[in-house]
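Moderator note: this is an archived Q&A kept for reference. The question asked for a predicted structure of one protein chain; the sequence and the answer are reproduced below.
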Amino acid sequence: MIRTGVNPTEIQSFESKYRVRLPGDLREYLLTIDGMEDELDAGINRFWPLAMIKPVHEELSDINPDRWAYPGCFLFVDHLILSLAWAVELRNEPSELSGPVFQVTGGDHPVRQIAPSFAAFLEMYLQNPFSIL
């Protein structure tokens, strides 16, 4: 089930906590849809609510070789209960589009860019949820 969007105060709190500025594409998404409830979609993915979005290094632990391979990147969706996840690069400057989206494996795999922005990732996902794998 899709969650109702967040209010602007929640976005401001997130930005203040992490010292980033949400880009227009991600901000618009979160104001409209605050991720999903606990269930997975048909592609076995779950878009996280803003309250769960966090830097990659905060979710992964020291046993994950790629814990520090995604500076400035925040996890926002996972596949099959964190078998894979995707992180978007956020900066501390206003922009219309986010930085690139990377697939996070928690393993030895090299950093793999999936899309040039959150908007492009979302478009890929909406066309085919399996295209992001």
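Archived answer notes: The chain has four helices and eight strands.
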